[in-house]
Amino acid sequence: MPAAVGCAALPRQDEEARSGPAPCKASASLQALTMSDGIMSKAATMEIPISSNGDAGSLPEDDGLEQDLQQVMVSGPNLNETSIVSGGYGGTAEGIIPTSAIKGSGLHQPHPSPPVGGEEVVRGIAVEKFDIVKKWGINTYKCTKQLISERFGRGSRTVDLELETQIELLRETKRKYECVLQLARALTNHFYSLVQTQHALGDAFADLSQKSPELQEEFGYNAETQKLLCKNGETLLGAVNFFVSSINTLVNKTMEDTLMTVKQYETARLEYDAYRTDLEELSMGPRDASTLCRLDAAQSQFQSHKDKYEKLRADVAIKLKFLEENKIKVMHKQLLLFHNAISAYFAGNQQQLEQTLKQFNIKLKTPGAEKPSWLEEQ
Fold first, then answer.
1. pTM score, two decimals?
2. What is the CA radius of gyration of the chain?
3. Distance (Å, rounded) from C-alpha 231 to C-alpha 198?
4. Nearest of 245, 241, 255 to residue 326 by alpha carbon
5. How far is CA 216 from CA 199, 201, 204, 206, 371, in A?
6. Which of 36, 131, 340, 346 could pair with 356 in a Cys bridge, judged by C-beta atoms 3.0 to 4.6 Å apart?
7. Alpha carbon separation from 131 to 39, 122, 139, 260, 333 (Å, rounded)
8. Which of 312, 314, 321 is nearest to 265 (CA)?
9. Each residue of 171-190: pLDDT tens digit?
10. Under a CB-based contact definition with an 8 Å cutoff, are residues 333 and 360 in contact?
């Protein structure tokens, strides 16, 4: 019987010898870790060629790298598990720390909440801005409605005939003065080119006078004449430039400032009519509790815009009056200057031309005097 048992056990021992011992779970895990480390190191050190258009080219070697990487990702740790692995990938169970043990730690510090006073200030600023936008929207709606009604002839418009006539006259005067200013600037540019040509011609005559003995006297006369005309032309240019500067100040500063006040007045007039129409519509409606509250608010807003409208109307009337007086004074002086300077120049009266500049306190800029020297700047 023992021999039979021994003979029966012999084939099992031979089978184990041929197939080898069965691998344990620890050995399998160690082998998978070694294979994944080798693949990851190979993938990290492998060069990835870049094509001309910036796309990654195909890897010519190791076509099974993608499958190996997928296998590593499958065998890696599950990121959805509520545990943290210390010691790296493939560590033992001793390195696993449950997340319940670190809930009270300082991994994620909570954001400090703003102070209560700061929240109230921010809320107050937001409410204030909202009220401003709301008032602006209501005012824009009312003014747009009033403007459309006036354009289509359905709404009434407050008109001050005398003031409106003066405003239209001012706009027409400004357009005409702008035309005079443009022509005066063109005259200055053309005359400046003439003076430069005379200066160059005088230099050429003077040079030929020295190099042509047989025509020295004739070239000399012409050189002196051109130099005298050039000097008188520079004097006339000073007078015309002063004329242009004064007209420019009158048109683009004085008149423009008055027209800005006129624009404010027209806006105030439109708002006044819009709130007046709103008040009239509420007055014609039923008189219940809510309507009375709205009527009181409309009356207050109407009175406020009425005061603003009347104030700006008075400002426009005063500015128009002062502008007319200033315009007469300035234009009387500038037109006299322009006439005397032009007449003296074309009459060839150099003394009268210089006297005209002295009469109006015009100082000519000498060449090189526009920029101070470095000694004067110290």
1. 0.60
2. 49
3. 10
4. 255
5. 19, 15, 12, 9, 38
6. 340
7. 66, 14, 12, 28, 53
8. 312
9. 999 999 999 999 999 999 99
10. yes
CA distance 97 to 273: 78
Q: What torsion do the CA atoms of 257, 261, 267, 269 make, to the nearest 10 degrees?
A: -150
- Give CA separation, 375 vs 308, 371, 372, in Å: 55, 12, 8
- Per-residue b or e along 47-73, where b marks 16 or more CB atoms closer than 10 Å to that residue's CB: eeeeeeeeeeeeeeeeeeeeebeeebe
The DSSP string of 198-228 is HHHHHHHHHHHHHH-GGGHHHHHHHHHHHHH
Burial class (CB in 10 A: 0-12, 13-18, 19+), 15: exposed
Which residue stretches of the chain are H helix? 2-19, 25-45, 65-75, 116-151, 161-211, 216-249, 256-283, 289-347, 350-359, 374-377
Question: What are the structure tokens assigned to 359, written together?
Answer: 């009469």
**In this predicted structure, what is the pLDDT of residue 359?**
86
Neighbouring residues of 239: CB distance < 8 A, sequence distance ≥ 6: 337, 338, 341, 353, 356, 357, 360, 362
Which tokens belong to 185? 């600037």
